[in-house]
Design a protein that fits this description.
single chain, mainly alpha, Arc Repressor Mutant, subunit A, two-stranded antiparallel ribbon, 2 strands
């Protein structure tokens, strides 16, 4: 037996959780700019792929950018985060 959630329910759930998760990510980056995706995943209790999804959307919107390499790099938050 397979249970499937309706598309409308999934969309509503995403709309409610995405802003909260985004705010938590931005707060974590402000506190520790060198935080890794794995650290964010543990902190937020979501999968690393979930973190990747949120970081991608934040970068696409110009809210954050990665400065430096993967190991030594840090996240920078732009002024768009205040909007």
């Amino acid at each position: 037996m397979t249970f499937r959630q309706s598309h409308e329910y999934l969309k509503l759930a995403q709309e409610e959780t995405t802003p909260k998760t985004t705010q938590k990510i931005l707060s974590a980056i402000k506190e520790k700019p060198g935080i890794t995706r794995e650290e964010l995943a543990g902190l937020l209790r979501i999968t690393p792929d979930g973190v990747k999804y949120h970081l991608y959307n934040l970068k696409k919107r110009g809210v954050i950018k990665r400065v430096g390499g993967r190991r030594e790099g840090v996240w920078e938050i732009s002024r768009k985060a205040d909007d």
